[in-house]
Amino acid sequence: MRLMIWIHSHPTARWWQPIRKNTCAASSTKSFRSRQIRYTNPEAHYIPRSYKDMESVLGISLGTRQVGIAILRNNELVDWHLRSFPAQWSKNKLKKIIGEIDTLIHDHSVKIIAVKIPGMLPSFRGFTQLIGALNVLLERKGIKAEYYTLTDIQEHFSPEKKIYKDTIAAVLTDKHPELLTIYSKGKEKRDRYYGKIFDAVAAACLLQQEPNLDRK
């Protein structure tokens, strides 16, 4: 079952402030360039700007310390990487995360987004603020978002029986061989370092295959 979340902030509040229920807001977003964020995956790939007119789906595995990113264009994986935000939670850190997502939307002409979230939303106030700020950004840009849990992804890849993240990563690597390097590293070191990348790719694949999805 797909989980939908809509959280908005007060009209007079800035979008990085604590989120309150049943209110809405619009605000401007300042884009933060890549030099302000520590890149944790040197193998990140970027699509040439000549393809910007083609439909792009942005997959995000959301977190307050790490954010997995995947860009699918016409079922082709064109960008995948991990962003790390190691500092303590603050307004400035929230602005950096949202600014990075804003830049991705602009650079890839994204019109629809798949967000992988935990099955049980963390009680940590920072995560609630992050979800709320993301929704305000997307509403302001007129971009649709679908939210998926691990259970949604598992049921998509294996409706009959439960499978685990390692199996999903193997299926995605078979479909997108360009992921083989990070898959092999993660398997060899028994490290979940790249797990959020696969979560982002899985969410984007799920969204792109959704039947009867209104993308307008």
Q: Within the CATH hierarchy, at the fold level, what is the topology?
A: Nucleotidyltransferase, domain 5
Quaternary assembly: single chain
CATH architecture: 2-Layer Sandwich
What is the tally of helical segments? Answer: 6
Mean pLDDT: 76
Short structural description:
Helices cover 36% and strands 16% of the residues. It contains six helices and six strands.
Describe this structure in words.
By secondary structure, the chain is an alpha/beta fold. The protein has one domain (34-208): Nucleotidyltransferase, domain 5. It contains 6 helices and 6 strands, in the order E-E-E-E-H-E-H-E-H-H-H-H. It has a 6-stranded mixed β-sheet with strand order 1-4-3-2-5-6, with helices on both faces. Helix 4 (165-175) packs across helix 6 (195-208). It is globular. The model is unreliable at 1-53 (pLDDT under 50).
Notable characteristics:
single chain; 216 residues; alpha/beta; Nucleotidyltransferase, domain 5; 6-stranded mixed β-sheet; 6 strands; 36% helix; globular; disordered N terminus
List strands and helices in order, with pairings:
Elements: E1 38-39, E2 56-61, E3 66-73, E4 76-84, H1 91-107, E5 112-116, H2 125-141, E6 144-148, H3 150-157, H4 165-175, H5 180-189, H6 195-208
Parallel strand pairs: 2-5, 5-6
Antiparallel strand pairs: 1-4, 2-3, 3-4
